[in-house]
Automatic annotation (TrEMBL):
Domain Molybdopterin oxidoreductase: 111-490
Gene it is expressed from: fdhF
Record family assignment: Belongs to the prokaryotic molybdopterin-containing oxidoreductase family.
Protein name, entry field: FdhF/YdeP family oxidoreductase
Cofactor requirement: [4Fe-4S] cluster; Mo-bis(molybdopterin guanine dinucleotide)
Gene3D superfamilies: 2.40.40.20, 3.40.50.740, Dimethylsulfoxide Reductase, domain 2 (3.40.228.10)
Species this chain originates from: Pseudoduganella albidiflava
Molecular function terms, GO-annotated: 4 iron, 4 sulfur cluster binding; formate dehydrogenase (NAD+) activity; molybdenum ion binding; molybdopterin cofactor binding
Keyword Metal-binding in annotation: yes
Keywords in alphabetical order: 4Fe-4S, Iron, Iron-sulfur, Metal-binding, Molybdenum, Oxidoreductase
GO CC term, one of those recorded: oxidoreductase complex
Molybdopterin dinucleotide-binding domain ranges (all copies): 651-761
GO BP terms in the entry: cellular respiration
Length: 779
């Protein structure tokens, strides 16, 4: 088919991985690191090296060789860059000037080297001594009339040690306000799974993938976001385990993969097909698909049993271990195939085929990512996946289970050690017992509630342990204004980003940038070199030792910075901050005292691959209200992304990651596997959906959000995107995050978990009002 030539838009014909991936690594290294640093890539995820700061996919326990990962290499080289953002840099560039740069350019300037404070008189950040910064931050926090007027954000790169001290400090100070990147990510998992199976984490181990008979993959893009998973999927594909994918976009890595670690694949040129079945579900249609699969399964089971055959369900498991089966059956009976086909966008025959694969597998694993959680009904989506697994008894035995693909490399660990706005009373009791502090008992703010409080002037201070909160959140304008209105902003960070530029200019408003060590760097404290610990997606806890020299002699570690702020804020603190920071194994001892699961923490983490935090669900112990695993149903009529009245047939937009980004960190403007080069101003739409609107591939379009909470008199419009005809489900569209965040309202979230609906945005497309001038493409 001949299609219009559009600069930067092509088609990628190859598999995921392959030589393209090797070339990309070479480029990342050439651009960022010197030769010496390059050798440290060999230490990533090794017993004596550091944990990859990329994704949370586990390391193969028996693997000894460096497991290749293009995007891990980008993450490492981005942190280990030779470029520096020094006080001289800030003297040369005012904050207003830096604001004009794009996100890529801000971080590209390199690593932050000095603690800085904003000077409103000159509009520049100026250097400040660490102790002065701590003293001023402490005074500002102490002067707030109520500790609940401060927000303590954490992004999931912080180690267990840093995160534990952080929550200890904020709780001794007096608040449970812990907005966290998890609130934007897997909160639907953290809320949904405990109700279903009594634990808010996955239940599988990496070894389970060696034993499973089928893998179902919902809404995640491993080639970009957890590339080391491709080795696992490839191994399953090679032993002919069916892999069933539900994704509105054809993602190349889920179609086929050529392993850069396989000389045969690389030279002879054969890629391994990954998905055996690829179903392009409509955005927001997963719950309908899963209901359809369960409906088909029940029908097939009834037929088989009527003919005297064995049940397709695990009847013993359902009887002994679950509650709510009858309610589930009734809900499925009430759900028509018409409804299922309409909402999912898939024909009944496809869903029945998927159910057939499920029925024929003795051991099933379901993997899922943001395509499931970031919806208005994310929690209910997660619970439907759990329902499906429970029907076959696929939780708590070898080769089976649920596998949420977590985001940041230690986001799961941060939660485990107490970063949560809804702490359990038992945990707070332990914290009080171990430290002699008084912990606040009322719930705090998650990310949406924190932004609302800052917007409305109820919160006046924000401390960020990493991340880029207002850029990652919906409705940047509202969030930017909220941060600019604060009395105090503290950013503990490795690299400059837009959040740091949201400064208040009135007398008394304070903004600080406190530069910290990254995970790749040596961390030496009073008793000598330190290591930290992290927990991956599969609950493996292991240690990480940085080896590179720090980017600047002025950097401090995250635990040391948290302790510095804590001491200055709480002169009467009950905690021996200096003692803990002097030797991180003492922090681990305290973690062990607070959380019994961490028994013999220091000893066990010293083993080469660390240890696993077992959860009760893995043993089929159900810590739920009923004491059983629960089949949970929800009102499916409420489960679709809703457009405002009068908007007929909107498309539903998902915001997604390109291959060259890590969340708000943009490494480059290519999205290789989707055929995009040198630009990010694109929207992927089905060719027929374009034609139905009088548009075609390459046209410039404006995108208006029309969710039920959006008002025509305050339109949310993203202008001048290039419409790219793409292999995507009808009725669905996709554009890049964070550029498209202005299309999501702060009030547009899953009511049960607070997860923003980044992937269910009803939109209308129009030809660009500007007349469609194309913009230059840069690489
Ligand atoms: N290199 C790199 N690695 C990363 C990150 C990164 O930005 N870059 N981010 C990290 C973080 S914090 C996270 S949370 C993870 C994110 O990892 P993913 O969950 O893979 O993230 P996304 O790119 O947001 O999109 C997920 C996929 O969901 C699909 N999708 C969208 N809507 C739907 C839907 O309604 N149903 C279904 N079934 N699919 C849908 C999209 O087509 C896309 O393939 O990755 C982590 N790892
Ligand atoms: N529209 C839309 N929005 C989304 C999403 C989406 O899919 N669509 N995804 C959401 C998800 S899943 C997530 S997790 C959030 C991500 O939200 P965040 O975690 O807040 O954002 P990041 O972009 O990962 O943060 C990048 C910054 O972290 C700092 N940093 C990097 N390494 C370190 C370190 O080791 N220590 C410290 N202290 N700082 C460090 C650097 O300064 C860098 O600029 O975004 C969410 N927003
Ligand atoms: Mo995430």
């Amino acid at each position: 088919m001949g299609r219009k030539d559009v600069p930067g838009i092509g088609e990628y014909g190859g598999p995921a991985g392959g030589w393209g991936a090797l070339q990309a690594v070479a480029k990342a290294l050439r651009g960022e690191m010197n030769a010496h640093s390059t050798t440290i890539l060999l230490q990533v995820n090794q017993p004596t090296g550091f944990d990859c700061p990329g994704c949370a996919w586990p390391d193969p326990r028996h693997g000894s060789s460096f497991e290749f990962c293009e995007n891990g290499a980008k993450a490492v080289s981005w942190e280990a860059t030779n470029k520096r953002v020094t006080p001289e840099f800030f003297a040369q560039h005012s904050v207003s000037e830096l604001w004009q740069r794009d996100d890529f350019n801000l971080e590209f300037e390199g690593r932050l080297t000095h603690p800085m404070v904003y000077d409103a008189a000159t509009d520049h950040y100026v250097p400040i001594a660490w102790d002065d910064a701590f003293a001023r931050i402490g005074a500002a926090l102490r002067s707030l009339p109520d500790p609940d007027m401060a927000e303590f954000y954490a992004s999931g790169r912080a180690s267990n040690e840093a995160a534990f001290l952080y929550q200890l400090f904020a709780r001794e100070y007096g608040t449970n306000n812990f907005p966290d990147c998890s609130n934007m990510c897997h909160e639907a998992t953290s809320v949904g799974l405990p109700e279903s199976i009594g634990v808010g984490k996955g239940t599988v181990s990496l070894e389970d993938f060696d034993h499973c008979d089928a893998i179902f993959s919902f809404g995640h893009n491993p080639g970009t976001n957890h590339p080391r998973m491709l080795a696992t999927l490839r191994a399953a594909a090679l032993r002919h385990a069916p892999i069933v994918v539900f994704n509105p976009l054809k993602e190349r890595s889920l179609e086929r993969f050529k392993s850069p670690q396989s000389p045969v694949e690389m030279t002879v040129g054969k890629a391994v097909p990954i998905a055996t079945h690829y179903y392009q579900v409509r955005i927001g249609g997963d719950s309908a698909v899963v209901k359809g699969m369960m409906k088909a399964l029940l029908a097939a089971d009834a037929r088989q049993v009527a003919q005297g055959g064995p049940s397709l369900l695990d009847r013993d498991f359902i009887r002994d271990h679950t509650s709510g089966f009858a309610t589930l059956v009734a809900d499925l009976d009430n759900t028509s195939w018409d409804e299922i086909e309409r909402v999912s966008g898939l024909p009944r025959a496809d869903i029945e085929m998927a159910a057939d694969v499920y029925a024929n597998a003795k051991r099933v694993i379901i993997c899922y990512g943001m395509g499931i959680t970031q919806h208005r009904h994310g929690t209910s989506n997660v619970q439907q996946l759990a329902n499906l697994l429970l029907l076959g008894g696929h939780i708590g035995r070898e080769g089976a289970g649920i596998c949420p693909l977590r985001g940041h490399s230690n986001v799961q660990g941060d939660r485990t050690v107490g970063i949560t706005e809804i702490p359990s009373q038992g945990f707070l009791d332990s914290l009080e017992r171990v430290f002699g502090i008084k912990a606040p008992r009322h719930h705090g703010h998650g990310a949406v509630a924190a932004l609302e409080a800052m917007r409305d002037g109820r919160s006046k201070a924000l401390v960020c342990l990493g991340g880029n909160l207002p850029v990652a959140m919906p409705d940047p304008q509202a969030c930017f204004d909220a941060i600019r209105g604060l009395d105090l902003c503290v950013h503990i960070a490795t690299k400059l980003n837009r959040s740091h530029l949201l400064v208040g200019k009135k007398a008394g408003q304070l903004s600080f940038i406190l530069p910290c060590l990254g995970r790749t760097e040596r961390d030496v404290q009073a008793t000598g070199p330190q290591s930290v610990t992290v927990e991956d997606s599969m609950s493996m806890v292991h240690s990480s030792h940085g080896t590179l020299p720090p980017a600047s002699e002025h950097l401090r570690s995250e635990p040391a910075i948290v302790a510095g702020i804590a001491k200055a804020t709480l002169p009467q603190s009950k905690v021996d901050w200096d003692g803990l920071v002097a030797d991180y194994s003492r922090i681990r001892d305290k973690i062990e005292q607070v959380f019994p699961d961490f028994d013999h923490y220091n000893e066990r983490v010293a083993q080469p691959r660390g240890f696993r935090l077992e959860s009760p669900a893995m043993r089929r112990e159900w810590r739920t209200r009923t004491g059983k695993a629960n089949f949970l149903v929800s009102d499916s009529r409420r489960e679709r992304p809703l457009a405002r009245p009068g908007e007929d047939d909107p498309l539903v937009l998902a915001t997604i990651r390109s291959h060259d980004q890590y969340n708000t960190t943009i490494y480059g403007k290519n999205d290789r596997y989707r055929g995009v080069t040198g630009r990010r101003d694109v929207i992927f739409v089905h060719e027929d959906d374009l034609a139905a609107r009088g548009l075609e591939h390459g046209d410039m379009v404006d995108v208006e959000a029309v969710a039920e909470c959006d008002h025509p008199d305050q339109p949310r419009i993203l202008r001048n995107l290039v419409a790219v005809a793409f292999d995507i489900a009808r009725g669905s569209a996709a554009a890049y995050y964070p550029e498209a965040n202005g299309l999501v309202a702060l009030s547009n979230y899953d009511e049960r978990s607070g997860t923003p609906s980044y992937k269910s945005i009803p939109i209308v497309l129009r030809r660009a009002a500007s007349g469609g001038q194309d913009r230059a493409v840069t690489d």
